[in-house]
User: Fold these one by one.
Assistant:
Number 1:
Amino acid sequence: MSVSDWQAFISQTDARMGELRGGIPGVAKGFHEVARAAIKAGALDSKTKELMALAIGIAARCDGCLAYHSKAAAKYGATREEVMETIGVAVYMGGGPSMIYGAEALAAFDAFFEG
């Protein structure tokens, strides 16, 4: 899938996820806690962790992952150059499909980056 409007994609996905969370509140709460704990700054800062999540999202070919982790990487101060290097690692690990999703990830980051 190719997303042309990442802002609208997140809005649509947020609405769908809200409905899902309402149907499985315990699972949703548990997932939220895992996500919060995983991204919390520790030995690695939150920006680095979001870039890692973005690379995994590229390799896993997950549009939602590209949207949310691009937005979060921008929020934590990632630069376009850092995202480019992140995409490079994802391509190394995921081959040709990661190259395609890397281009999508860059488009998603550009939609949220204010630099």
Note: The domain at 45-115 is CATH 1.20.1290.10 (AhpD-like).
Number 2:
Amino acid sequence: MSNTPADGTVTKLKVLTVNIHKGFTSFNRRFMLHELREAVRHVHADVVFLQEVLGTHARHAARHPDYPEAPHYEFLADSIWPQFAYGKNAAYPHGHHGNAVLSKFPIVHQENRDVSLPGPERRGLLHCALAIPGQKHQLHVFCVHLGLRESHRREQLRLLAEMINKEVPTGAPVVVAGDFNDWRRRAHDILEELAGLREVFVHATGHSAKTFPAKFPVLSLDRIYVRNASAHSPIVLPGSPWNKLSDHAPLAAVIDL
């Protein structure tokens, strides 16, 4: 998708974000990672933001004969996205899961910041800096999966804004995407005020996209925010095959650098 003139400069790229529900359909009825990989490929995104992606899970591997040996983010990246980063958020005796970024551009820096708050939920913010051909600044991307409690989300949004303001150089483009669990839509004002971020669907249509549950979306949980960049053609991908692959509908947008 990336727009590359004759001099090699990339001026626009497509991003995709999706909560993959650990490779299973709603209520863990079916293991769908192979079908999910094909669906992700057909979007032709340059950068993919994944939430609830498994690093390893011994029990699932024993139960499902088509379970890949590689971590799920590597399996999904395959030969399409040569660069990938994984942030382990939740660990348990039989495995772990977290956020991941797949990229067609070099990942020159990565960090997973633990933003877990007291309670059983483990959350992290995965920050990657991408080297984009011909661009003065690196592209800074943040893959986000926030908590279920509003008080936790509010603090995690503050930590996200602080992280962006401290670690991203002035003028560098920023894309923040993922599952915000923000059904009350409080994040828009907070992130605009604290970090100058704009949500691409709100900017384009006046309201955030409904993404959950995927078969009949009524809640706006998933988002794409930008700073020092613009976006166009934001779309929700709720129809076939996506509504059979995860409980969240994916979002995609073209980002102009």
Note: The chain has one domain: 12-256.
